[in-house]
């Protein structure tokens, strides 16, 4: 294989949907000679039974020792403890990346715990699902998706190149953004839509749900995601979610006013513009 692969050892910290999919894809595409996974709780048995890794352990330090690349696939709330635990075990020449959905706090944690010890580059694959857990992980989860890289202020280009090559090898496309710009964009296209889907589902009575069709299912699919994870994400990025929400509410108020006035022209303009933008987005997507 060309480039830096196969790695001598790849460590993945966390075996949920994202971490499990990283592990499955890395094994399928032969990106490492040795795969080490950190997994805890009842899920660990399923990870061991899958037989995709040379090591499955609940000792994070053991998992990262000797790894050239470490992927931290954990919620932000769990990152600090793990980063503290692996700091002394991780190789100074290794590269650490994460998959957190909100990059400003994640980058602060990486800097706080790894500064002076090893190199790190933030990343976020835009390829989640309303499902969660290792049981829903799959090797093609990242195929065609965008993985956003958020390098630190003075990055090691070698480290950035390795993380970028890794996501490309998993089938993703890559884009480099600053952490604040990442959080602003993702608030609009990921975090706000989840909140809107949740509110929409709660606003509909059971009688209406009984006759709901594919349109309602498509619009509200993401509302089935894990509440604990999404409440953490929304709170962590509220600085960007709130302006996006206010902008949406202003547009919704305008649509409400037009509907009350019976302004067919204004409603048609809104729907036509939305249709054109949605079609353009679909054509630009792989």
Q: What features would you describe in this structure?
A:
The chain is of the alpha/beta class. The chain has two domains: 168 residues, Rossmann fold; 103 residues, 6-phosphogluconate dehydrogenase C-terminal fold (Orthogonal Bundle). It is built from twelve helices and eight strands. The chain has an eight-stranded mixed beta sheet, sandwiched between helices. Strand 5, helix 5 and strand 6 form a beta-alpha-beta unit. Helix 4 packs parallel to helix 5 and helix 7 packs across helix 11. The longest helix is centred in the last third of the chain and has 25 residues.
Secondary-structure topology with pairs:
Layout: E1 10-13, H1 17-28, E2 35-38, H2 43-50, E3 55-57, H3 60-64, E4 69-72, H4 76-86, E5 95-98, H5 103-114, E6 119-125, E7 146-150, H6 157-169, E8 173-176, H7 179-203, H8 206-210, H9 214-220, H10 227-236, H11 238-261, H12 264-284
Parallel strand pairs: 1-2, 1-4, 2-3, 4-5, 5-6, 7-8
Antiparallel strand pairs: 6-7
Query: What's the CATH superfamily of the largest domain, by name?
Result: NAD(P)-binding Rossmann-like Domain
Helical coverage, percent range: 40-55%
Structural class: alpha/beta
Q: Based on Cα principal axes, name the global outline.
A: elongated
Q: Major beta sheet, specifics? A: 8 strands, mixed
Distance between the termini: 25 Å
Number of helices: 12
Number of strands: 8
Low-pLDDT parts are none
- Count of the separate structural domains: 2
Q: Element order, helices and strands?
A: EHEHEHEHEHEEHEHHHHHH
The chain-level mean pLDDT equals 96
Strand order of the largest sheet: 3-2-1-4-5-6-7-8
The value of Rg in angstroms is 21 Å
Beta-strand content estimate: 5-15%
CATH top level of the largest domain?
Alpha Beta
CATH architecture of the largest domain: 3-Layer(aba) Sandwich
CATH topology of the largest domain: Rossmann fold
